[in-house]
Amino acid sequence: MDIANAFALLSNFVLVPAIAYGAQLALGALGVTIIFGILRFANFAHGEMMSFGAMAAILATWGLQAAGIGIDPLPTALLALPVGILAAVAMALLTDRFVFRFYRRKRSNPIVFAIVSVGVMFVMAGLIRIIIGPDDQSFADGARFLFTVRDFREATGLEQGIGVKQTQLITVVVALVVVAALFWFLQKTRWGKAMRAYSDDEDLALLSGINPEKIVMIAWVISAALAAIAGTLYGLDKTYKPFIFLQILLPIFAATILGGIGQPVGAVLGGFIVAFSEVTVTYAFKRFLAYLGPDGWAPEGLVQLLSTDYKFAVSFVILVAVLLVRPTGIIRGKVI
Fold it and tell me: What is the CATH number of the domain that holds 36?
């Protein structure tokens, strides 16, 4: 019974939150990976693109809620998500048209592109704060839990319970569908194969008749759509904080580099590794260990390696360790 209680406790505070968070990071890392695979630069504006897409979805959600339109018990934001995707795609294409295309035609160094993306990031961040403000925004509605800790306790008779939020299940399901659709597109469709060929050898792809501008456009569309979905799901699962998406960029880049930059499979794997690392390292294991020890025994301290205030430090350590030990990441080979 004590082992079952320990597992329930760990599941409620570590396993379930980490799976949902890992799905969000995986979607964000895939967006960074797609841009790197095609344009060969680290897009530091990706976090703000997540925020921009989520902001558009929030504004559309408020409009639907005001009109009395919903899909209860599911959150109304699912209906508004296409608006967020379209807004993010439009912003990405406009940014490419008026900013990145200029440097692409000059064949600028990837470092120049990365620096330019930092400028785009600040401009986009300012625009977001002008439109929606700097405060936290809540837009989730519908049923909050699939089942609560109390329901689990009553059903199992355990002292500890597991609660699963509806947004956590939605995050995992949407992430599975989106990732499966992306891999199908890259592996089976004409334009997906063209993207892979362009990523592998740009000159040979051009000789084969592949239109580079279309490839770049598709890459931006996919990356922006992934950003909008990831940002909206993160906001639904937690809350929308305009400033948090700049911080989320660190674990997203850590996941991208850990998995192997330019590797979609690695991005997904890296997202979950980073998520589980952050949640596990910042969890206080005192009660968990008390269940596994003798009756009446409990550790004196919280048995917590890091406070939750320092969870992003875990991503930083992972990022530095990977760059020092294995810069190629977990998965080596061709990008995309």
Answer: 1.10.3470
